[in-house]
Structures are given as C-alpha cells and as structure tokens.
C-alpha cells in the first residue's frame, strides 16, 4: 500500500521526532574522553578509556546520576597540542558539558582556554604539567593526578636518598610534559647537592640516540633521568645497553607503559619509574578492581583509576549541584571533597589536587612492576 504524507502531516511527524529525540537526549549525560587514540601514544588513551568506561558502567548499573545515564564520547587528539583546541571546539559544538582528558600535557594546555571560556568542566587524569593551571585563574579545569612539581621532588628525593649516584644526567623530549618534569627533577637534585653533569633535550620520534649516549658516557653519568614518554625511553635503554653504558635509568609515569618492553628488550629490567600509588591493593577498592577484571581490563595501569575517579568526581558534582549544570558542578567541586578509588580528593582554587601520592616502582623485563623497597 502506498501512503502519501501531506506537508502538514510531515511537519507534525518531524516535530514529534524532534520531541522524542529531545526526550531521549535529556536522559543521557555525555562525557567526552579526549586523548590519543591514534599514533605512538595510543595506549595512554586506552588506559583512560578503560577507567572511564568502567566507572560509567558501574554508575549506570546503580541507577545513573539523578536518574540520567552517563555516556562516553571518544574524541582523538593524537596527543598533539595543535589538536587540543580542535577537540575542545568539537566538544563545545556538540554541547557536551564534561571532559575526562586531555591525556598529554601539551594538548591539555592548548585545550583548556576553550573549555574554561565555554563553560565545560574538564578533569585530566594524566596531564601533570604545572602550566595546565598555573596563573590561569580557571574555574572549570581540574585534575585527578598530581603535578610535575609534586612528582619531580619525589623522584629527586628518591635519587638522592636511595640511589646516591655520583653523576646524574637529565634528559628530556623538549615537550611540555617531558621538559617540565625534567626541569623540576634537575632543580631538586641540585638543591640536594647531587651533581647534574648533563641536561639536554632529544628529539621525540628519532630512531638513533647514539650521539647522546656517547655524551652520557663521556660525562661519566652513572644515573640518567629521562622526562618524556616510553618510545624514546625504550630506545635509550636498548641503545645504551648496546653501547656499554653503565647507568641506571629513571623516568616519570609517561615511561610506565607495557609497550616499552618490546622496544627496550632485556635492557628495561630495573628501570625506575614514578607512578601513582598502586590503589588496586587497597581492600576498599576490591569491587572496583573486580569491575575492571570482569571486563578483561587492567586496573593497575598508570591512569585507569585516576580516570575512573574523574568520572566519579563529575557524577558527585552533578549530584551535589542538583542538576546537569557545569558551572554549578565546578563550583561544587571547588568546595567539596569526593570519595574515589584514589582516596578522598579535594582541589585548591586553581583545580589542582591538594595532595597526591607518587611511588617509585621497579620495572621488569616481563612487563610487571614492583614498588621499590
């Protein structure tokens, strides 16, 4: 049977469809996951997504937030600073009110002005550069991880008190995150009276670091701190071993990626890395850990539980505000603490955590890690 619609019927049908769409949309609160889902640092984005997905599933199973379900929207920035504003503007245009991300500090720094100006709550579970928040007077920007100037002193104190090297070299990848943490470590080492014999940047993405390894050997470095990500650290470890460099290596959470084992090979054994404390061992987190494992996800990576906690903070903020209003959610977060798998967290005026614990881990050739004792 052929059915013909008059213009009036078509218009009524369109209006009804729009009303149904509006009602359906009102039942969902979307949270963007902004991070690298292409490129060399994809696994960091995957860590954050695992945390966000697990938190959303848990919260939705418990009835959602104020009767609304949460929904994740994945948006790729490739960890590229130039993509930060592009992603942020897409979030604004799609009328998404909340973001977990960005993952890398460079992209985060570039994106935050857009979010703050447009009234979007952003909580990064991984961007540690102080430049994300320092001197910005942002109201809408938060983190669920510590800063480089919390992590740097922890690393420097460990090096000075536990390792006690004769000559330290500090390298970095010339990027916001890597150079920032390396600079902080260098400053704190020098305050502790540890000699820094070399402070130098390398080019991320290069395949041959022979020249810098030669410099390390010439400088007599017996300890190397590298600020950056796992691809370059893996090459430094492998090529250093091949060239007979006798030095211990250490890096921040950006090198704590299982993919480093394939790059470095056996040379990765004994690498030291600062990471968020292992919250999976807390008995209070047993149900959270089970929720991850039930989905074949790893709760023990660098950013899974900080991302999970970011979602819990957003949910708590919406409940505390009594409505899905990002400005009111931000105001509530600034004035309250939230119970999460990483502890009871609270923020200072600029959106940084008031406290955060980094531990030092020893990385092993089988991909596992253990707290340094």
UniProtKB/TrEMBL annotation:
<protein>
    <submittedName>
        <fullName>Branched-chain amino acid transport system substrate-binding protein</fullName>
    </submittedName>
</protein>
<dbReference type="InterPro" id="IPR000709">
    <property type="entry name" value="Leu_Ile_Val-bd"/>
</dbReference>
<keyword id="KW-0029">Amino-acid transport</keyword>
<keyword id="KW-0813">Transport</keyword>
<dbReference type="Pfam" id="PF13458">
    <property type="entry name" value="Peripla_BP_6"/>
</dbReference>
<dbReference type="GO" id="GO:0006865">
    <property type="term" value="P:amino acid transport"/>
</dbReference>
<comment type="similarity">
    <text>Belongs to the leucine-binding protein family.</text>
</comment>
<feature type="domain" description="Leucine-binding protein">
    <location>
        <begin position="28"/>
        <end position="353"/>
    </location>
</feature>
<dbReference type="InterPro" id="IPR028081">
    <property type="entry name" value="Leu-bd"/>
</dbReference>
<keyword id="KW-0732">Signal</keyword>
<dbReference type="InterPro" id="IPR028082">
    <property type="entry name" value="Peripla_BP_I"/>
</dbReference>
<feature type="signal peptide">
    <location>
        <begin position="1"/>
        <end position="26"/>
    </location>
</feature>
